[in-house]
Amino acid sequence: MMIDPSRYGKLVYANQGKPSDYHLLNQTIDLRGTIAITRYGGAGRGAKAINAAAFGVVGVLVYTDPLDINDGFMSDTNETYPHSWYLPPTGVERGSYNKDFGDLLTPYLAAKEETYRISPEDITGIPPIPTQPIGFEDAYRLICELDGKKAPDEWQGGFNCTYNFGGPGFKPTSSFNNSDVKLEIFNQGKILNSSNVMGVIRGSVEPDRYVIYGNHRDSWVHGAIDPSSGTAVMLEITRVLGRMVKQGKWRPRRSIIFGSWGAEEFGLIGSAEYTE
C-alpha cells in the first residue's frame, strides 16, 4: 500500500494543524490545493493531515519549532547539539502518523501469523493525504518567505521573522516567488515480524492476578535516546526483584509481568497486540 507520493501546491502556514487553525486560515485563504506547513503540538501527527484534508489541503509538512523545543534558540550552532542538549536545525522528529494503535490490518485481533487480515483498502486511521516531517532548518527558509497576512500572535514561533499565513505562496520579493511546493513521499506498507520480550514473576497467593510493568525498546532512529532510560530502569527492576526471588527472600502476592514492547514507534504495535 502506498499513498500517491507526489503533490504540488502553494504553501500556507497552519500553526499546529488543529481544526480551529485550519478554520481560521480558511477564512483568509482558499485552502483547496494548497500544502500546509505545521508545527508539532496541539494535535497528533496524523490528525494534522486528517484535519487538513477536510479543507482541501493536499499535503502537510510538520516541523519542530525552536520556541517549542529549544527555548527559542536556533540561530547559533553553538546553541544546539552537539554543543548543548537542544535539537539541531537538521533534527527531525519522526513517529507514527496513524490515528489508531496496533497492527491496522488486524483490528481487535492479535496480529499473529495465522490471524485474518483485512484488506489494506479497508484500513482506517491513516491520513488521506501525504505528510512529511522536516527539520526547522528547512522550515525556517519556507516560513520566513511566506506572503499574506500576519498570523495571530499565538501562532508566532522562534524564527527571527514574522510568521505569515501565506498568500498562498511566497512573497513577490522572495526567490521562491510563484513557486509551488513539491511534496514527495515514498512510504511502503510491509508485514514484518516484531517481538515482545516477556518476563514473569509468579505470585505466591494470587498468581492469576497480575501487575504489568512495560516499556518499549525500539527508538525513532538508530542512536535515539528514547526509550533507553525507561528500558534501563525496567531491566534494573527485573534484575533486583529476580535476584530476591532466586535467593528465596521475597515473592510477590500477585504475579508481575514485565514486557519489553516491540514496534512502538510504528503505532504502539507491540503493546497493543499483546493486549489484544
Compact overview of the structure:
This is Aminopeptidase naaladl1. The protein is an alpha/beta fold.
Characterise this structure.
The protein is an alpha/beta fold and 276 residues long. The protein has 6 helices and 9 strands. The protein has a 4-stranded parallel β-sheet with strand order 2-3-4-5, with helices on both faces. A 3-stranded mixed β-sheet has the order 7-9-8. The protein has a two-stranded antiparallel sheet with strand order 1-6. Helix 2 links the parallel strand 3 (35-39) and strand 4. The longest helix has 19 residues, at 228-246. The chain starts with 5 loop residues before the first strand and ends with a helix. Residues 9-96 form the PA domain.
Structural topology:
Blueprint: E1 6-9, E2 11-13, H1 19-26, E3 35-39, H2 45-53, E4 59-63, H3 66-69, E5 131-134, H4 136-143, E6 181-184, E7 197-201, E8 206-216, H5 228-246, E9 254-261, H6 269-275
Parallel strand pairs: 2-3, 3-4, 4-5, 8-9
Antiparallel strand pairs: 1-6, 7-9
Protein name: Aminopeptidase naaladl1
Main location: membrane
Organism: Goodea atripinnis
Q: What is the terminal separation in angstroms?
A: 24 Å
| Overall average residue pLDDT | 92
**C-alpha Rg, in Å?**
23 Å
> How are the strands of the largest sheet arranged?
2-3-4-5
Shape: elongated
User: Percent range for helical residues?
Assistant: 10-25%
Largest sheet: 4 strands, parallel
- Uncertain stretches: none
Number of distinct helices = 6
Total E-strand runs: 9
SS-based structural class?
Answer: alpha/beta
Strand content: 15-25%
Order of SSEs:
EEHEHEHEHEEEHEH
